[in-house]
Each structure stands twice: as C-alpha cells, then as structure tokens.
Specification:
This protein is an all-alpha fold and 164 residues long. It has two domains: 97 residues, no CATH class; 59 residues, no CATH class. A hairpin with a 2-residue loop joins strand 1 and strand 2.
C-alpha cells in the first residue's frame, strides 16, 4: 500500500494553501485523490464510503504487518481487502476519466459512455478520450514472446470507446 501511495502522490492533488501528506501516507494521499476524482454533491456517498474503506483497509493491513498472533487466514483476508481497496480506487479514477458522472444534455440520461448517450445517441462535443499509448513493433514482439498468464478472472480489457 505504501508503493501505491508513492504512485498516486501528486502535488496537483494538494488544495491551494494545503500541505502535502508525507510520502508514505496512504490515507492522506488517497483521501486527496478521492476528493479530486469524486467531487461534487452527487459523489458525497462515494467519497464517504471510499475514505472509510481507505482508513479501515490501512488499519487492518497495518495490524496484520505487526500482529504476532495472525494466522494464514488473516493474510488471505488482508489480500482480499487490499484487492477491494485497489479495485474501488481504480473504478473511481475510471469513472472520472470516462465522464461517467455526466448526464446527457439531450435526454438527461445517466447512460453516458465515452461522451455518448447510450439512450438517445447524443454525442458530447467537448468529450476528450483519455490518452493511450501505442506499442512499438519491438514492444509488441517482446510481449508476445512470453506466454501470458492472467492474474485474475479479467480476460478482456476494453476502452470506453469500445462501447460505442
């Protein structure tokens, strides 16, 4: 989780006049990230849940790190809670990046994906797709040289534009 905090730590998340959390402050950096990615009154419950999840996950993992009476199942639980935490933070960031919090200006539907309304077909002229990096021929060849073993049950990755 400290490595995760190092990855998300960004001065752009610090409110004007605010102080930066310490480098390994998982809760501090995550709360800044949540505030940035789930802003506004409609995201109040999401922010509340996410900040509580962050604190509880950190407290459990911290306890587990130092517990002399922990058993293997406690470690399994630790892996599960960290996995859930990372999944939630990823979903929050994807929600913000894909514009999922916006409503259709034509029909008012929340069914907006990649700047397009699934309900009525309206396209948001201001939508900008998240940048993606194309692999070079050499990078692609290197990745295809070794077999791929999925680390989870997710076998298909799609971009928001694949839903159009």
């Amino acid at each position: 989780m400290v490595t995760y905090a190092d990855e998300v730590a960004d001065d752009a998340l610090i409110p004007e006049g605010g102080d930066a959390p310490k480098a390994a402050d998982v809760v501090g950096w995550t709360n800044l990230l949540i505030a940035d990615q789930a802003e506004g009154p409609s995201s109040k419950q999401l922010r509340s849940y996410s900040t509580k999840l962050t604190r509880e996950t950190w407290d459990y993992v911290n306890w587990l790190t130092h517990a002399k009476n922990a058993i293997a199942y406690d470690a399994h639980i630790g892996v599960a809670v960290v996995s859930h935490f990372l999944s939630m933070i990823t979903a929050i960031c994807l929600r913000a990046a894909t514009g999922a919090r916006s409503r259709c200006e034509s029909c008012g539907s929340y069914r907006m994906v990649a700047g397009a309304c699934i309900r009525c077909g309206w396209d948001d002229p201001d939508y900008v797709a998240p940048a993606s990096r194309e692999l070079t021929e050499e990078e692609l060849a290197a990745r295809l040289e070794k077999p791929c073993v999925p680390s989870s049950d997710i076998s298909t990755f799609m971009s928001p534009d694949d839903h159009r």
